[in-house]
Amino acid sequence: MSCSEDVLMSNPVLPTIDPPITGGSEAEMLGKDRWEQIRALHEDGITVSGIGKRLNLDRKTVRRCLSMIEWQPYRREVKPETLLDAWRPWLETRVIEVGYSAQILFQELRAKGFAGSYETVKRFVAPLRILADQAALCQTRFETAPGEQAQVDYGQIQVQFRSQPAKVHLFVMTLGYSRRGFYSDSGNEQMGTFLEAHERAFAHFGGLCRTMLYDRPRIVWETGREGKPGHWNPTFWRFSEHWGFEPRLCAAYRAQTKGKVESGVRYVKCNFVPGRSFVDIVDFGEQLQQWQSGIADTRIHGTVHQRPIERFATEQPALISIQGHRPFGECLAVSRIVADDYLVSYDTNRYSVPFHLISKPVTVQTDAGELVIRHQDREVARHPVLAGKHQMRILPEHGPGALARNRRQRITQPEARLLNRWFGPPEVEVRDLATYEQVSV
Question: In Å, what is the CA distance from 417 to each residue of 183, 408, 422, 423, 428?
């Protein structure tokens, strides 16, 4: 199995040291490598006792190996003691966490007081890495039914835009059954672009899977501090509820859990990027989409041995339909404070509300192409959403002029003060004093 697929895996068991070999017949069971090593050490001037101690062999076994003209059937290698034995319990856990990196282990061991060399650590790690690779060959691939699971991840790619180097954030979503992927450049890895990329992927597939598998980015999962449990990012959780999928997390230090999408990120880096030149991010995106439909969807997948676009024909009917489903942003109400010009801003544009709501909080939400503004759960204004940027839409009935045209209506003290600010104090009719004298008679 390719290591690019997700698997169910247990931690590999580290090798144990064999007991000393004794007896003449056992000497004949040593492998050729061990037999040659014994002879080489002897040629280097190492005594029989020295070879026995170094290789954890009985002296009689060493002597009989030296007397053999030909080697006998293979015997598992005996591991000599090393300077790392004192750190072995710690190494057994840490070597897995650092991905079997001898360099990282050496750096950390030096900080702990280890006086040995990097080569010592390297020799210690080498057989463990081999065991891990062998264990990977025996792992069971985790397959999912059509429409059951998709995997999501970000990757970063270094490219050239004209003569300038640039870093592109790559969003990838891979369907677990068909292995069909959605690949898109992304300006950043923040919440807004992350959710928008999801919705573009849903539109690309014409639906979405019932579960979505993620790593542990902060925009998805907020790790608990000071012993408190972690929790889903509230905005992301509302997004998952809006679209009706169940989010799931990979286990810590287990990248294999989402190997399908990890493979997709590597596939872009190894198949799409090499040999290409890009003018800018727009050109990058256009070429990526052409590559996606012309190559990624139609190549024979190395694991399922079918074209992803062909397997997708089976998976697509099992996806959750997006027909009639509004984008998450249209269902997400945002809070605003009405400005002194009785306007509220939304997506760089500004819209009017009734004049008396100045300085008061309102909520703004889109609904079928219209902007609905509410105050205390009561609708106070509705506008068509402006298509451009930095525009204004003001309804005459919202302004102070509408109140000024009918000053006999009952208005509150705040409204009166606002009218005075815009138009000055109301005019008072000037009458002759004789008029009041006649009334008082």
Answer: 57, 15, 9, 10, 16
Per the domain annotation, does 361 fall within a domain?
A: yes
Token readout for 111 is 């900080």
Task: Provide the residue type at 172 as one letter.
Answer: V
CA dihedral 150, 154, 160, 161 (to 10 degrees): 80
Position 166, amino acid: A
For the chain, give the percent of residues with pLDDT over 90.
Answer: 29
What's the token pair of residue 131? Answer: 């065991």
Q: Give the DSSP per-residue string, 79-108.
A: PPP-GGGGGHHHHHHHHHHTTS-HHHHHHH
If asked whether residues 163 and 265 sit together in one domain, one would say yes
Residues 168 and 306 grouped into a single domain: yes
The answer on 315 and 191 residing in a single domain is yes
Which amino acid is located at 133 in the chain? D
What is the phi/psi pair of residue 25, to 5°?
-65, -30
Give the phi and the psi of residue 134 in degrees, each rounded to 5: -65, -35
Print the domain residue range for 158.
149-321
Task: Give one DSSP letter per residue of 32-62, joined into a string.
Answer: HHHHHHHHHHHHTT--HHHHHHHHTB-HHHH
**How confident is residue 370, by pLDDT bands cut at 50, 70 and 90?**
confident
170/188 Cα distance (integer angstroms): 9
Q: Which two tokens stand for residue 165?
A: 């180097």
pTM for this entry: 0.52
d(CA 312, CA 206): 11
Tokens of 80: 């000599």
- Cα 185 to Cα 198, 250, 263, 272, 292: the distances in Å are 12, 23, 17, 13, 12
Q: How far apart are CA 21 and CA 27, in angstroms?
A: 7
b/e sequence 179-204, b meaning 16+ C-beta within 10 Å: bbbbbbbbeebebebbbbbbbebbeb
SS3 212: strand
pLDDT in tens, 309-362: 999 999 999 999 998 888 887 777 788 899 888 999 888 889 999 988 998 999
Exposure b/e, 279-303, CB count within 10 A at least 16 = b: eeeeebbebbeebbeeebbeeebee
Q: What's phi and psi for 184, nearest 5 deg?
A: -150, 135
CATH code of residue 195: 3.30.420.10
